[in-house]
Structures are given as C-alpha cells and as structure tokens.
Amino acid sequence: MDPVHASIHPEVPGEKTKIGTSLVDTAAAAIQSFGPTKQIHQHLCAFHFYADDMTRQVEAHHYCGHLNDEMRQCLIYDSPNADARLIGLEYIVTEELFLTLPDTEKPLWHSHEYEVKSGVLFLPGVPGPVERKDLEKVAKTYGKTIHFWQVDRGDELPLGLPQVMMALTRDGQLYPSLAKDVESRYGVSFEKERENRAYIQGPVHGIHPKANAAGVGLQTVLREIDCKPSGPEPVHRIFV
Amino acid sequence: MSLTNEAGHKTNGTPTSKPLSTGQQILNKGAQMLQSFKPINQMTQHACTFALYNHDMSRQIETHHFITRLNQDFLQSAVYDTDDTNGRLIGIEYIVSDAIFETLPPEEQKLWHSHAYEIKSGLWVHPRMPEMIAMPELKNLAKTYGKFWCTWQTDRGDKVPLGMPSLMMPPQSEGAGVVKPEVVRKRDEEYKVSKEDSMKSRIEIPEPEWINPTADYWRQHNKCFEVDVESTEINVRTEYS
C-alpha cells in the first residue's frame, strides 16, 4: 500500500501583509507594465519528480508563454490559487531545437511523449479536442525543469540548491494516490484521456537516448570557488 | 509609451528561427480565454535592477523582476531580461524580511544577499512609478535579503538555457561588487531614471542596523559559489521497476 502521496502546501512564515504595503502593491499594479508576463497564455498541469529520487513527486502548475514556435517558457507554481508558491520554471523546446543542444546538456532535459500519451498532462478548463491540438505539439517536445522550493518535503521557505526535475516516462511511476487526488480535483480521467490521445505521436526521431538523464540519477552540488575577478584590477606591465 | 530600447534587446540571443504561427496564436488565445491565471495575476510590482554572476562578477546584467507578495515578510519574483513582451525568463528571486532571514541556518544564509546597498544607492527602481509612492516599499526592501538563481545566460548569447543555474549577487559598494557605470547608464537612459536622483531621494531610508555577515558570502570570505550536477543512483519505485 502506498503511503499517502498528496500535494502539500506548507504555510509560508511571516506577518499578514500590512495595509500600507498592500496600498503600494495596488498602486504599482495599476501604474506599472507587466510586459513579459502578459504573454503567459496557458495553464498546464503535470507532475515532476526529483532527478535523483523518483519517489518524490510534485504536482506542478505550469503557466507558459511562447517565445516563438520553437520555445515556451513557464513559471511553475504548487497550486493554481492566488496564494500559490512559485516553485520553479520550465523551458520547453521543439525536437529540432533539442537536437542542436550539446551532448552534455541533453541529459538535463526530459521527453514529454509519455506524459501526453498517458493522459496525466492536461490543460485545466480546456475541452479535449482543443487541448489535443496543442498536445500533439507538446508530445514531440523536450523540457528542462528546475525547482527551487521543495514544498513536497514541507519546506516553508525555498531552501537549498536548485533541483533538476524529470518527468514520467512509463506506467507504474506515478503514485496512484497522487493521480487520483488530481483527477478528482480537476474532474479529469487520465485513463479516458489516454484513449483519446492514442493517435498522438512523440518525437519524429524517437526519444533521444541522452534525454531523461540517460536513465541515471542527477544531483546538484555546490562548489566553493575563488571569486573572479579577484581583488582590484591588475596593473598591466609591458615587458620589452 | 514604451521606453524600451527594442533594437538593443530583441536581437541579442533571442531564438530567431520561426515567429509564432497563426495556428499557435489561435490555440493560445483559446486557452487564454478558457483558463484562469490566478498566480500570475498576483504579480503587483515591476522592479528593475542589476545582478552579477557570483562565479564571475565581471558579468553584470540588467534584470526585471515581476514580484508577488505572499505576506509582509515574503516576496517571490519571476525575473526577465527585459520588460517588453519578448522578455526571456532568466530566473527566480525570493525575498525575505530580516526577521525571517535570521531564522535560517547558516548553510542556507550564505546563498542569500542583502538589499540595503542596492536600494540606498538608487540602483533598484520601480519603472514608471513615482519615487514618492514607492518609498514605503523601498524602506521595507532595504532590510530584506534575496536569493536569486539565474537559469538562462542570455548575456553570453545563449539561444537556449544551458547548464545549471547560477547564483546571482546584487551590486555592492566595493571590490568586485561595483557595477559598471555604463551598465547603469544604459538602463537609466532607457527608463528615464537617474541613479543619482534616486540615491538622493533615499537618503532618509535608514541603513539597517545589522546586516548578517553570512549573507553576501563573497565579501567576508572572498569565496564564490557555483552549482554543478553529478550523476548518482536514482531512487526509484522498486515495486514497479
């Protein structure tokens, strides 16, 4: 039996926003412009797991904008609510662009074919036929996801190092309790969508063997290095 | 009126290949009308400032922070390289009050930076917002600490985000932390602001009585940080593998 795997949302410590502060926020929101965030046009829900620990699975709400036909950039939150925590980001590129990446870079990226075809990746509120039009494209893409806030282990604040995240690649990886929780909250059925999406094709050249960390675990480490430039500008001497 | 220098930004490093197709635009419009964007709609402030790569502080970038407040002591921001609609998402910065910062373990504190200099010196500005209105927020910010990870090094021309995130530092008054005058001048001209005027108007903002020396780690220790990735065993759901 699974332990209970469900999304948790730890309370962020701090005082309630003061009235003076919220007035400044209101004024700023009215006066300022929010150019790049106005391009965000899509809410996508899926799951990520840590690149060194598949048993830690996180419900991830992606808010994405297109930079062009080859690339999307997404902010990732732990919920779709107003008080959601910004826990990470994801870049999504076409297969074509992915193939141009250096081989050392490819393992940091994950494929989307399984997530789409299994039905677990969905666009809340978008009817199936419209949703599938976009998912036909997503199924061929690769994503690079970094999380900065480990809400799943109960962190009230974003602690520690950035974490490389991966996506599901086959049946049996996702905790059924987590799946059921999301299905019931959004009124979706992953099984039914799996059937509807059976026709969708993944990357034309197949999933690249170096993607999805080439099947090994990845962990981030912090290195202490000498700062550069070090100290004041060096004095240049001319030796004849 | 947009004050952005479009030519300066849009060409540099942006994936140039294909513009967004009409089909995709229609799909996007459709999704946008049907879906809700509550977390995004909570962004209430746009701040423009500068950041230095901790692993090479001679690399200095202009940053645009779109900020959401979760409570009086905590802010989260999406960071872009410009504020125009083509802005590239280059990272995330979290901001906490001094009270919260003091509760963090030292190992964590060394990843954070102080904001007092950035605010007092007039480098951090809220574009298009009268300084008077921003003043209470600037006073709050002067006492805060930030943790900023940059995921896309557009300054070196990366067309796609490459490698691991970089820890970023704000400018400081001395040594490697001094921001290049030309970087500031370019911003000030674009947004019709003046670092000098802002600095004068912020004289009244009190210097924090205490800036925790574990923050801004490089200043005390002359050591910087770099994040690397290593391969390791992966913990899998053994019952299924």
TrEMBL record, chain A:
Q: What organism is this sequence from?
A: Tagetes erecta (African marigold)
For this chain, the family text in UniProt reads:
Belongs to the OBAP family.
Please state what the protein is called. Oil body-associated protein 1A
Q: Which Pfam families match?
A: DUF1264
TrEMBL record, chain B:
Q: Which InterPro entries match?
A: OBAP-like
Q: Which domain of life is it from?
A: Eukaryota
Note the Pfam families from the entry: DUF1264 (PF06884)
Task: Locate the region Disordered.
Answer: 1-23
Q: Which family does it belong to?
A: Belongs to the OBAP family.
Name of the protein in question: Oil body-associated protein 2B
What is the organism of origin for this protein? Tagetes erecta (African marigold)
